[in-house]
Amino acid sequence: MSCFGCCEEDDIHKTADYGGQYTVKSSAGNLGNYHASETAPKGAQAFKIQPIEVPEISGDELKEVTDNFGTSSFIGEGSYGRVYHGVLKSGQDASIKKLDASKQPDDEFLAQVSMVSRLKHENFVQLLGYCVDGGSRVLIYEFASNGSLHDILHGKPRCVNCPVMKS
């Protein structure tokens, strides 16, 4: 089962019966132009990486827009990491989720980012970008000006420093 309930595991994972290529390499700022460069050992699990439809955003830009992930931009904490508010260089308000450390391989993470980058629905906040910088992984989503689902359901704001957006 995938961690995304709308997708089956087979959508992401494929077994390399023939020793096919599997390792993903990327460079900052590309738009999903990943290149396989190593060969999987026979019988190893490989990942079918579809193009990632959002840009990779540099760790330096994210540190700049979140005041180095400081308390002034902190807006909440979830089960997978801390969330910060920032305005990207494009001028777009963003929720920047710095994920907790994980032993998940980069290729698995990038396969999931690829899938989420292609999800388009009026009830989902849009993924704007991502960052893989050393051991740090960050997901950048459009800023939800109405607060989190928790806030909406329970009527209690979880953050006093959250920016207020006018419609």
UniProtKB/TrEMBL annotation:
Instruction: List the PANTHER family.
Output: OS05G0135800 PROTEIN, PTO-INTERACTING PROTEIN 1-LIKE
Source organism phylogeny: Eukaryota, Viridiplantae, Streptophyta, Embryophyta, Tracheophyta
- What InterPro entries does this protein map onto? Kinase-like_dom_sf (IPR011009), Plant_StressResp_Kinase (IPR052101), Prot_kinase_dom (IPR000719), Protein_kinase_ATP_BS (IPR017441), Ser-Thr/Tyr_kinase_cat_dom (IPR001245)
Q: What is this protein called?
A: Protein kinase domain-containing protein
Q: Residue limits of the Protein kinase domain?
A: 69-167
Positions bound to ATP: 98
Give the source species. Answer: Populus davidiana
Work out whether the entry's keyword set contains Isomerase: no
Q: Which domain of life is it from?
A: Eukaryota
Keyword Nucleotide-binding found: yes
